[in-house]
Write a sequence for this structure.
C-alpha cells in the first residue's frame, strides 16, 4: 500500500470511529481488507472514501460505514458459520471472513460472483464458500447458520432465511420495497420466537428471486 493509500485508510478508520463504530475486531478487519481490490479501476483512487461505489450490473459496493455497522451488529464470534446473501464485489464477504469460521455467500449475478471468486483467491481467503443462485432461497443444505447478513432490501423479513437461522442466531436485513424508505432490521431468534430491532435507515438494491447469467461480464 502506498503512503497515500495508508494515510487514507487511517483517515477512514478514524471517520468510522467518529460515527460510533467502536468494535476493535471489526475496525481491524476493515483496516486489513484492501477495499481497492474490490472496486473498478476507475474508482480505486476513491477506495478509502466512506462512499458507496458502482461495481457494474446496477450494483454497488456499500460504503465502509454501512459494512462496519452491519458487521458489528452481527456480534460475530470466531467459531461461527455465516450466510451472506448478495456477494457483490466480495468486500463485505472478505471483512466477514476475518471474523468467523466460515462464510457461505450467494450471488445472483454470475459475472459478479466470478469476479469476487478471483479476489478471494488473490487474497487467500480459504474460509469463503460461494454459490451462484437465487439468494432468497438461502443455502438449506448447510443450514443452520449462527449469523445471516442480507445485502439487498426485502419487502418483509424472508421466512425462508429465518428458518435457516440457528436458535440464538442473528440476522441483519434491510427492509423496504422499491422506492420506499428502507430500515436495517436486526432479527434475533429465541426458540420459536424472534425479537426484532430497527437499527438505522439504509439504501440497498432490492432482493430479487432469480439469477442472471451474463457471460460477457
Amino acid at each position: 500500500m502506498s503512503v497515500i493509500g495508508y494515510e487514507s485508510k487511517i483517515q477512514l478508520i478514524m471517520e468510522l470511529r467518529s460515527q460510533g463504530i467502536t468494535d476493535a475486531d471489526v475496525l481491524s478487519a476493515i483496516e486489513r481488507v484492501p477495499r481497492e481490490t474490490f472496486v473498478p479501476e476507475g474508482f480505486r483512487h476513491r477506495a478509502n472514501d466512506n462512499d458507496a461505489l458502482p461495481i457494474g450490473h446496477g450494483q454497488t459496493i456499500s460504503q465502509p460505514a454501512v459494512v462496519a455497522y452491519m458487521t458489528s451488529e452481527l456480534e460475530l464470534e470466531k467459531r461461527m458459520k455465516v450466510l451472506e446473501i448478495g456477494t457483490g464485489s466480495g468486500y463485505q464477504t472478505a471483512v466477514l471472513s476475518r471474523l468467523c469460521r466460515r462464510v457461505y455467500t450467494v450471488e445472483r449475478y454470475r459475472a459478479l460472483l466470478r469476479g469476487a471468486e478471483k479476489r478471494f483467491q488473490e487474497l487467500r481467503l480459504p474460509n469463503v464458500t460461494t454459490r451462484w443462485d437465487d439468494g432468497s432461497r438461502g443455502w438449506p443444505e448447510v443450514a443452520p447458520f449462527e449469523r445471516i447478513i442480507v445485502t439487498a432490501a426485502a419487502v418483509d423479513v424472508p421466512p425462508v432465511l429465518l428458518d435457516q437461522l440457528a436458535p440464538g442466531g442473528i440476522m441483519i436485513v434491510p427492509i423496504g420495497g422499491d422506492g420506499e424508505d428502507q430500515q436495517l432490521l436486526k432479527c434475533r431468534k429465541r426458540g420459536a420466537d424472534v425479537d426484532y430491532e430497527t437499527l438505522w435507515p439504509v439504501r440497498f438494491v432490492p432482493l430479487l428471486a432469480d439469477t442472471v447469467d451474463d457471460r460477457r461480464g
